[in-house]
Amino acid sequence: MRPLKVGVILPHLEGWMTGETARWSDLLELARVAEDVGFDSLWLADHMLYRLDGIEPFGVWECWSLLSALAASTSRVELGTIVTCTSFRNPALLAKMADTVDEISGGRLILGLGAGSHEAEYHAFGWPWDHRVSRFEEALQIIHALLRTGAVDFDGTYYTARECELRPRGPRHSGPPIMVGTLGERMLRLTARYADEWNMPWRNTVQAAVDLFPKGDAACIAVDRDPATLKKSVSIHLDLPSRNRYPSKDWITQMRIAVNAVTGTPEEQAEVLRAYATAGVSTVQLWLEPMNPHGLEEFGRVLELLDGP
User: Fold this and answer.
1) What is the per-residue pLDDT across 76-119, written as a single tens digit (0 to 9) for each?
2) Cα–Cα distance between 80 and 42 in angstroms, integer?
3) 305 neighbors 26 (Cβ within 8 angstroms)
């Protein structure tokens, strides 16, 4: 009966979990509570270090290490990256990692990909910032070919994968679904050509998401694809009534001043999510506040309402 899938982004950023930095034991507890409450999926961002003006730097636990552990520690929920940056790892290796995590999870991985967005972490960790979309295009071609066919022979400007094979293969012959997070026109054309799903980051109103739909449709038509075959997902900030009972780090407070998060009673929030589904969104990924076991359990009422008649 649920009109769309509802996922939650786990707080593996420094200081995110109601003012504290989540350790692995915390993230494991959150994952298991989310699974018990009824969430459809768990999501991890792929960043290393944030340096923002006027805010003390903060870091992020490495997402693929955590993803492997979550794959072995959960049984039902889908697991996704929102989104993993193709610049951070060799693309053939990333395809191998994805197939392996899909094996560990029993076929529950969603491979979310992006071109990167935060220049400071590129410089800090030694990755090139130039030609990000061109690098992403080559990486996506390699990853797509390896996951869908198990082999690729590619010699590009930025990446090479000669006579490369994925052996053994994971539980799905064509690999996990590929989701691309983007708002840019060139990236959308790549999404239409290679991806199964298009993720629209931080569209906190239904109209903000719907306003983007024509861009995705146009990208599909440009590559002779039926727009209806490209799934749509949206990441959303959602504040529960209990949010103000818990402390927040400065970077969260400052970042969320102009966010316009979804608020209201459980009934009102359920109606907002139903509206996304009616518009054509198949999955929402929630930045939930408060992000702790209580917050997940509190949101369980919204899930109950979504599951009802």
Assistant:
1) 999 999 999 999 999 999 999 999 999 999 999 999 999 999 99
2) 6
3) no
With H, G, I as helix, E, B as strand and everything else as coil, classify residue 217. helix
* Whether pTM exceeds 0.90: yes
Tokens 């009534």, residue? 241
- The Cα–Cα gap between 302 and 308 comes to 10
Domain boundaries, the chain: 5-307
H-helix segments, 184-265? 185-194, 206-210, 213-222, 250-255
Question: What are the two backbone dihedrals, phi and then psi, of residue 271, each rounded to the nearest 5 degrees?
Answer: -65, -35
Distance (Å, rounded) from C-alpha 70 to C-alpha 72? 5
Q: List Cβ neighbours of 191 (8 Å cut-off, separation of 6 or more).
A: 180, 182, 198, 216, 219, 230
Reply yes or no on domain 5-307 having CATH 3.30.70.1290. Answer: no
Identify the burial level of 94 via C-beta atoms within 10 angstroms of its C-beta, where 0-12 means exposed, 13-18 middle and 19 or more buried: buried
Please give the Cα distance from 181 to 142 (Å, whole number): 18
